[in-house]
Amino acid sequence: MLTVFKNLSKTKFPFFLCQPIEENVDDPPESSNATASVSPGTARRTGSGEPKSKVPKTVSTLTSYVDRTSPEEVDKIDAAFAKAVYSGGLPLSVFSSNPYFADALRLLRPSYPGPPTTHALRKPLLQNELREVEKVHDEKVKQADCVTLMLDGWTNRKGDGSIYFLLGTPEVIFYDAIEPGVNKEDAEYLAKEIEKVMEKVESHRVQMITADNAPVMQCALELVRQKYPHIFTVGCAAHGLNLLAGDFVKLRPIAAIKSKAVQVVKIRRKRVAHAIFKDAQKAQTGSNPITLKSPNPTRFSGDCILFKCVSANRQALQTTALNVDAKVPPATRLFLCDPEFWKDIEEAETLLKPIAKAITILESESATLSLVPRVLMDIKTCVMEFLEKSHLTKDIRNSVLKRVEYRINFICKGVHKAAYLLDPRFLGESLSDVDILDAMEIIEKMAVDLKLDYNAIENNVAIYRSKTGIFSREILWKSVDSPDFNLLLWWQGKCREQPVMPVAERLLQLKPTACDCERVWSDYEQTHSKRRNRLENTRTTNLVKVKRHLRSVLAQKQKAGKNKGKSSDIAYYRGISAVTLAIQYYEVQDDEEDSEAEDPGSDLDSDWNSEEEVESNSDSDTD
């Protein structure tokens, strides 16, 4: 593109700053003035009519002062705009429907023909970006020793369903998605589609499949395991912990206090009462208040968030209840002023807080499979300490302990114990002899699959656990407690020649949860929104895939250098005491919803309040 300025000599643009375009001309006669080819701008910059150094023989033409945008530059600018639209989840008509964008861009670059059209964003630009994303994903899969396969389903507002597949390489990538169409999503169909993805990425790379705990999904995983015996299939650890929190809330005393807390939160539905509450809250907490939040059955740790926000706003809630203009119901006003209510709220929060903290840790991108046994041990310790101080009856205490044991066995499998054993931060600490044998069976199975010498590995594990032989060197263990400790680098860099290293390398790359599937579910919901409900399923999937990749690249750039010297949740969890965990507050993320599936053990004990059942299958795609 070429833009010529009219009345060039009368414009206020500082043309003396423009660089002249060099053009080859014939050498001038010897008698000609050497300064004839020096532009006025050069003379003005040097302060005299003579240049300070010899300059190329050039001539100034009209094109020296013209704003030009080549077709290549236009393509680059369009691609940059497309990335901004896709990563931000903006409507594809964001430029076409708002001409002010074009006006602003013309001021910045007059020769730029304008932002990309809706058609360009929907088709050519999106396809170009998608090809680049898939190229990067394929390269990551090729470089990975093993991957974790995760899957979940989503249905849009028009009733069109999708099943999407993620791969942990160990970085989680959105790999593929399918549309079931008229096919019934039963165990056989899901198993068949899982096998197709495995063959696409080469089945020997897939070491574990993680999904939700819905019965249909568990049946599908069992079918896959029969065909590929080297694969481990486990449920999502975070979802299992969320079910444990739900078990606690079904206790009649906790269910009663939850019902009262829900009535308190409903204050925000009344405009005057909420305004009075906000004024009192501002006076109490200043500029950083904790808002009142209702529990969401599809949100992990939702009940703990409810108890925490009510407890944090005690003074403001009591002030609101005593205000006549707020018109708080008498029953609500009565228990808000009752000290026993606040004592019960504190007890309920203390009981659920260790689970909420553990879920937050396992949801982290840096979480490993070895953390699952550690968090379960600490949760059990916290619960036992809570029961010693609580006023619950003996029967309810026994029911709580029974439920904890059931959930631990439900979540923690042999592969978790094997990873915990080979994590140098833990060394299998507190595992029973039976647990050690379960872990060694997994290690033996992997050794056979990898065609390794199991006898050498078994002896190597014994030396590793006892810190004898080469593992007695102190230099090996110096970095273990560091906040920036990297499990894979420890094995690959310091213990590469050890027989057990190939097994440890694969186990410690596996993902403990399928929480990234829930994040993808949220991305789908944000992309195919009420205002964008005409988007086709295929295009929605492509937009989500590109968006997640672009945001991942941006997050990696922003993260570099920011966390130096900061301790992570994982480092915090190393050697933490159960008492500290019980009183530690956790950070709440409000902008993400997590789905919950059926609980296969919902009828385990009759002491639980059946009226509070919330473990229905919310994944409509996997019925």
Structural summary, described in words:
- This protein is of the alpha/beta class and 623 residues long.
- The protein has 4 domains: 2-67, no CATH class; 69-122, no CATH class; 128-235 and 515-559, Nucleotidyltransferase, domain 5 (2-Layer Sandwich), CATH 3.30.420.10; 242-512 and 567-592, no CATH class.
- 34% of the residues are buried.
- The protein has helices at 40-46, 71-88, 100-108, 118-122, 124-143, 187-200, 215-227, 237-249, 252-265, 271-285, 302-312, 314-322, 330-336, 339-362, 371-389, 394-411, 414-421, 433-449, 454-466, 487-494, 501-507, 515-527, 537-559, 569-573, 578-583, and strands spanning 2-3, 67-68, 147-155, 161-168, 172-178, 206-211, 232-235.
- The protein has 25 helices and 7 strands.
- Helix 11 (302-312) crosses helix 14 (339-362), helix 15 runs antiparallel to helix 16 (394-411) and helix 15 crosses helix 17.
- The protein is globular.
- The two termini are 56 Å apart.
- A 5-stranded mixed β-sheet has the order 5-4-3-6-7, sandwiched between helices.
- Residues 1-5, 23-53 and 565-623 have low confidence and may be disordered.
- 51% of the residues lie in helices and 6% in strands.
* Major beta sheet summary: 5 strands, mixed
**Structural class category:** alpha/beta
Residue-averaged pLDDT: 80
Query: Can you tell me the number of structural domains?
Result: 4
Distance between the termini: 56 Å
Number of helices: 25
Task: Identify the strand order in the major beta sheet.
Answer: 5-4-3-6-7
The share of residues in extended strands comes to: 5-15%
Question: Uncertain runs with pLDDT below 50, 5 residues or more?
Answer: 1-5, 23-53, 565-623
Kindly provide the radius of gyration, computed on alpha-carbon positions and rounded to a whole number of angstroms: 32 Å
Query: Helix content range of the residues, please?
Result: 40-55%
- Overall, the morphology is globular
**How many β-strand runs?**
7
